[in-house]
Amino acid sequence: MDSSDVIDKFKNSFKEESIENVSDIEQALLSLEVSSDQDIINSIFRNLHTIKGSSGMFGFNFTASLVHEIETVLDVVKDGRAIFNQAAIDATLMSVDFIRELIEGDEAISEIDFNKRKQVLVNEIKKILETSNVKGDFQEALKNDFSKSGNSSVLEEVARVDPDNKFDDEALRSEFKSYKILFSPAKGILFHGHKPINLLSKLINLGNGYVRAKVDNIPDLELISPDNVYVDWEIILNTEESRESIEDIFVFLDSQSKIDIQELDKCFESDKGDNAGLKNFNLLGLDRNAKDLANSSLKKSDFVEKSFSSGDKNKFNVQDDTVRSKVNIASIKVDSKKLDHLVNLVGELVTIQSKLSKEAENRSSNVLNSISAEFSLLINELRDYTTGLRTVPIEILFVKFQRIVKDLSANLGKSILYHAYGGDTVLDKSIIEKLNEPLVHLIRNSIDHGIESSEERERLGKDPKGIIKLSAFQSGDSVIVAIEDDGRGLDKDKILKKAIERNIVSDSSAKTLSNIDVYNLIFEPGFSTASSITDISGRGVGMDVVKKQVESLRGNVVLESELGKYTRIKLIFPLTLAIIEGWLVRVKNEHFIVPLSNVESCLESNNLISQIDGVETKSNVMNYRGSMISFIRLREFFQVSDEKSFNEQVVVVNTNSGKMGIVVDEVLGQHQTVIKALGKIYSRVEGVSGATILGDGSLALVVDIDAITKLIR
């Protein structure tokens, strides 16, 4: 490796690390929208300083110059002389976009153009910060003090600012309101994808106060189920936000969860006079310091109390994935190609282990069987750890989408809240890398077509603020990524009308389509129900691309909707692309793998129907648990043989269009193996997504269930 190769290698490392720093700055700026924590501001400066230092070393002089200018104008925020208001955050985000553009594009810009853009961006930030100077502004200074004060009570802060208590308590009351919130989650709240800890985290971001966990309902140890929640919560919250903002946090909970929100501001109304506010704060016990208040509460109740404030979130270890601070983890970076090669080698070991097990079985050797069993345990553990190395948290995408929702909703003049859950859910890095584009399109669709304008939502009796929820969770060997909005929902009649107009379906067949089939029509090429084309969406070139990209990752798309209420799109992926679990089946002398993620059950073929009312029918239908579903014989689909088997078995699978039967000669059992691509020559073979080598050295094709379903329909 010559010197130029070494320089290029380190330059690429610099670009990767700098883009990570840029993403951290972007995340921190978005966090400032809900919390003015000084630690967040400090993290912005740390990342800026890191980028500036590295940029100079690798000749990115424009980048170093821009970052230096940004640091200079932001010093007034770091020193507490100005406040990071919304306008300042937006302007700084635009500058961060320019930093990213410079690094990713290797500073492919002329000096004149660079200087022009730099001055415009820096001057905009400077102008905004000058208007937010806090000198002489008591109310802003008071708010700033609160954000820096950690666990101090409201009255402690007043006493520190105005020790003689000669202040306008009306001004204080106009800034903050106090609420008592009783939160009794349903026992099965976790089953619905909600975590109480995340909801409490959101409350933290609204202000300061304390949380108590009521443990009365926890049963005896032998009766506890890990899937249930037995704890109720009492929250005392001091906030500038409205009651509606608190209610929005619990908007997606089901009716079995109980929420009671009481406003405590009446405590101010019982006394009159110069110090009325102080006297009534005394009634609440807020004149004592936080330590005394906590000790008193522990003595007088059976609650477990935990103080928290917007300025000291580390003492209450909960987080909403929408805004998450960076966690320092001891780690090393490894070239992804090396990881891929390692996974391939482990895959070869899995194949060899399968051959060894087969040989041990054939020889009926106890010694060989024992060795094979031990080898199998080690290989399985090595396989799990190795495939885990390929997985990364989906959080890296979630943070980016927060910015997209913010920018697009502002562009369209809509008020939209963005909630993200399950950011710590991991997916194969190959899926993460290719998932960005389809998710961006789905989010843009939700913002443009799904969420109504604030005026329209008010007319419909909805909250003026729409909600887009992005979530991820693991279910078995699959990961489900869901995008949901509380907007218009899908209009079945409108979709059918458009599909008939475009000759996608006929009038007669349209009447027989289920809701799922109708909704899936939006994935047809060129299909769109948008009344007008915008620069965001509406051209009908996106949803079919989304589905193809998801399916290329061995994923499925499931669409759910209710007119006027919501639309939910689930993207279901395997945990890893390297190894597949499925049912090994035989058709004559050929073997196939049916992916386990699709399989619902296996049964004998005595439910297949060849006659209806005594008349021969060409329709392949079967009776499955009281319902009629279609089936297909793999023998016929892959043209394995014209001979008919008399002892057929059926694998019932779930597809995008419902359940379907796959008829085979024999189901051999569950099988885990490494999946291999077919290569360019066979990549277009329909109904097959890959291949694998069995223990005896023979080849088995991996069946693409959704592709087969589409072909036979």
Automatic annotation (TrEMBL):
Domain called HPt: residue spans: 3-106
Membrane-traversing stretches: none
Positions of the CheW-like domain: 579-713
Histidine kinase domain location: 338-577
GO MF assignments: ATP binding; phosphorelay sensor kinase activity
EC number assigned by the record: 2.7.13.3
Coiled-coil parts of chain: none
InterPro entries cross-referenced by the UniProt entry: Bact_Chemotaxis_CheA, CheA-like_dim, CheA-like_homodim_sf, CheW-like_dom_sf, CheW-lke_dom, HATPase_C_sf, HATPase_dom, His_kinase_dom
Entry GO terms, CC: cytoplasm
Keywords of the record: ATP-binding, Chemotaxis, Kinase, Nucleotide-binding, Phosphoprotein, Transferase, Two-component regulatory system
Any one Gene Ontology BP term: chemotaxis
Pfam families named in the record: CheW, H-kinase_dim, HATPase_c, Hpt
Phosphohistidine carried by residues: H49
UniProt catalytic activity: ATP + protein L-histidine = ADP + protein N-phospho-L-histidine
EC class: transferase
The protein's role, per its UniProt record: Involved in the transmission of sensory signals from the chemoreceptors to the flagellar motors. CheA is autophosphorylated; it can transfer its phosphate group to either CheB or CheY.
Protein known as: Chemotaxis protein CheA
